[in-house]
């Protein structure tokens, strides 16, 4: 991205990375709907909040770990709950359509339960990450991102149409470019 995008703000003539990073949007399922989804969502938010430069993107409801899926077809699964009152099935979950879109879709919370929980711990985790980013110039104002090591391998998972999935552990260092 740093090579292919001009990240210089035309108004001020300085480096100004304004790409938005998040882990979801209104056109895909909500991570907390699946098995271990809250942990997966928080890992993604950790990376986008504390590692990547640019603007933080949070879909409303992520701070509450919302998980209801409100589509009406098994080949287009999304979670676009309205901010205002919604139908009971949208508020209370109980998703039963399954998925022809995702292979072995591990639905969990979407199958049952009440969706909205403003006291969910995810809110406090996000609040702590945002505070760290504001309090530390290294976390907030960095653009240099360099890979240190890569202990990964490619796996061909069922249902992936022969597309490899890289899995393992990466390590990186990030900070400022001198003079930028």
Automatic annotation (TrEMBL):
GO terms for biological process: fungal-type cell wall (1->3)-alpha-glucan biosynthetic process. It comes from the Eukaryota. GO terms for cellular component: fungal-type cell wall. It holds the Pfam family GH_Mok13. Residues 143-179 form the Mok11-13/Ags1-like GH beta-sandwich domain. GO terms for molecular function: alpha-1,3-glucan synthase activity. This is Mok11-13/Ags1-like GH beta-sandwich domain-containing protein.
